[in-house]
């Protein structure tokens, strides 16, 4: 039965939340595989907007089961907050939410270390949600897992050991006040009571449901260009948003995967620091930000904006194995006289057709653009592909040709109905 992976093919914020919500109609399970509450997945239903950080974007479909996989780092405070918000909206999660016992926990010291590191070393521009420090502990093999919450003695012992060590770093290296061990212990002891019913072996659950013929959608967070291995290191997140991360982050084997949908915005945005070849620092960038409402769903930071970059999406398609793409926010370009697509990079007088992931090259490259006539008419009401203005279709064709991908979904607004499925 189908296992489809949804990946962000740029620097995150491509509109994965909306696309996952849209596709959830025809699946049984939606599973988040990496990242944590650094993500902000927005779903608009009617006149209401919901921003999810940890719970999969399939939650608004009552028949869909939602999984938070082992690859996710979970901040219990953010999770409980999100569960409460959903309950207040009368969205039932009982029997629908499954949290991996192998997922790691984000602790207050992770968030603290995330922000103080940003103060003192080269700024990545992180979301400050403790993501990097939590993954560090996971790989150091000192992390605290969800399953540790189930055994009080082990949990308290691990937590105390960790806090004592972190306090040394916090005090001696950064000169900040130490954390209160007892306060954190008592705060976190409460969490297991609140999330106990959701904890399970999600790899086992997913594999058995897969065998039972259930349709699974793996929901990525962030984007391929923020991938720890394949992104613009060090200006990346600390996980693998690329499709490979779905297998390790859920325990589903690569052989189970049937398709990989890359989500791209019709232009490009990036939050935080790091190279961004097609960034528009002048008025056009401001215009995209304003029309596109390009402010972080998690941090509220203004997003950097620029033209569509076919070179980086081609690269993203390669490392993800993208089988087709969803192009979102096409309507944001409605009023532009001309729109541009970056088709190649110039580095030291040479034309590059492939994406150099090293930051020093990326900072020096000059983008080569192709310019297209705008369509100068509103598209947000359009529901059929043939009704899309010819110039907009030409623009979409160029995206297909230049990135070597096939457009399957076009999104023309935040609402559910503002979506066109092709083929
Ligand atoms: P971290 O994931 O908080 O460690 O942040 C590392 C980098 O990834 C920063 O540039 C963040 O702005 C960026 N980032 C993290 N999560 C997201 C996201 O969901 N959308 C867009 N950028 C993100
Ligand atoms: Mg986002």
What does this structure look like?
With 423 residues, the chain is α/β, with parallel strands linked by helices. The chain has 3 domains: 3-100 and 199-261, 3-Layer(aba) Sandwich (Adenylosuccinate Synthetase, Chain A, domain 1), CATH 3.40.440; 104-194, Adenylosuccinate Synthetase, subunit A, domain 2, CATH 1.10.300; 264-421, Adenylosuccinate Synthetase, Chain A, domain 3 (Alpha-Beta Complex). It contains 13 helices and 20 strands. It has helices at 16-23, 76-88, 108-120, 131-140, 152-173, 181-189, 191-195, 202-211, 244-250, 283-292, 310-320, 359-364, 390-403; strands at residues 3-8, 29-32, 41-45, 48-52, 65-68, 73-74, 97-100, 104-105, 199-200, 216-219, 259-265, 268-270, 304-306, 308-309, 324-328, 338-347, 350-352, 366-373, 407-411, 419-421. Strands 9-7-5-2-10-1-11-15-19-20 form a 10-stranded mixed β-sheet, with helices on both faces. Strands 14, 16, 17 and 18 form a 4-stranded mixed β-sheet that branches. Strands 3-4 form a two-stranded antiparallel ribbon. The chain starts with a strand and ends with a strand. The site of inosinic acid has 21 residues, from helix 4. The site of magnesium ion (MG) has 5 residues, from loops.
Briefly, what is this?
With 423 residues, the protein is an alpha/beta fold.
Number of domains: 3
- Apparent shape: globular
In the predicted model, the low-confidence regions spanning at least 5 consecutive residues are: none
Looking at the overall shape, the CATH architecture of the largest domain is 3-Layer(aba) Sandwich
Q: CATH superfamily membership of the largest domain, which one?
A: Adenylosuccinate Synthetase, subunit A, domain 1
| Main β-sheet description | 10 strands, mixed
End-to-end separation in angstroms reads 20 Å
- Record the strand order, biggest sheet: 9-7-5-2-10-1-11-15-19-20
Q: What is the count of DSSP helices, taking H or I runs of 4+ residues?
A: 13
| Gyration radius, in Å | 21 Å
Tell how many strands the DSSP assignment holds.
20
- Structural class, please? alpha/beta
Portion of residues in helices? 25-40%
Bound molecules: inosinic acid, magnesium ion
Q: Taking all residues together, what is the mean pLDDT? A: 96
Look up the CATH topology of the largest domain.
Adenylosuccinate Synthetase, Chain A, domain 1
* Amount of beta strand: 15-25%
CATH class of the largest domain: Alpha Beta
């Amino acid at each position: 039965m189908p296992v489809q992976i949804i990946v962000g093919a740029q620097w995150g914020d491509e509109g994965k939340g909306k696309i996952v919500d849209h596709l959830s109609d025809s699946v049984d399970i939606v599973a988040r595989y990496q990242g944590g509450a650094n993500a902000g997945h927005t779903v608009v239903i009617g006149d209401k907007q919901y921003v999810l950080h940890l719970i999969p974007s399939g939650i608004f479909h009552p028949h869909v089961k939602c999984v938070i996989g082992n690859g996710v780092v979970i901040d219990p405070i953010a999770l409980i907050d999100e569960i409460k918000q959903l309950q207040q909206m009368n969205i039932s999660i009982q029997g629908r939410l499954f949290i991996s016992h192998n997922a790691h926990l984000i602790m207050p010291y992770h968030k603290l270390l995330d922000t103080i590191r940003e103060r003192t070393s080269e700024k990545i521009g992180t979301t400050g949600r403790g993501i990097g420090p939590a993954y560090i502990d996971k790989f150091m093999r000192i992390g605290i897992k969800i399953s540790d919450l189930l055994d009080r003695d082990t949990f308290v012992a691990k937590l105390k050991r960790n806090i004592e060590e972190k306090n040394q770093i916090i005090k001696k290296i950064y000169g900040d006040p130490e954390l209160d061990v007892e306060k954190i212990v008592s705060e976190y002891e409460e969490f297991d009571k609140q999330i106990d019913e959701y904890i399970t072996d999600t790899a086992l659950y997913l594999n058995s449901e897969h065998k039972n013929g259930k349709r699974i959608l793996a929901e990525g967070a962030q984007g391929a260009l923020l991938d720890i291995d394949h992104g613009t290191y060090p200006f990346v997140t600390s996980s693998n948003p690329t499709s490979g991360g779905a297998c390790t982050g859920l325990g589903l084997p690569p052989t189970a995967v049937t398709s990989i949908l890359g989500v791209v915005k019709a232009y490009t945005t990036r939050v935080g620091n790091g190279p961004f070849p097609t960034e528009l620092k002048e008025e056009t960038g401001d215009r995209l930000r304003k029309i596109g409402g390009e402010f972080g769903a998690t941090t509220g930071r203004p997003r950097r904006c620029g033209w569509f970059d076919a070179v980086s999406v081609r690269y993203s398609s390669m490392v993800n194995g993208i089988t087709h793409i969803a192009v979102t926010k096409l309507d944001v370009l409605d009023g532009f006289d001309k729109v541009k697509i970056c088709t190649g990079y110039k580095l030291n007088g040479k034309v590059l057709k492939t994406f150099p992931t090293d930051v020093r090259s990326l900072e020096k490259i000059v983008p080569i653009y192709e310019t297209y006539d705008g369509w100068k008419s509103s598209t947000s009401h359009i529901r059929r592909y043939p009704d899309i203005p010819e110039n907009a279709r030409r623009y979409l064709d160029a995206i297909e040709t230049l990135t070597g991908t096939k457009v399957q979904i076009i999104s023309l607004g935040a609402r559910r109905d503002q979506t066109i499925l092709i083929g």
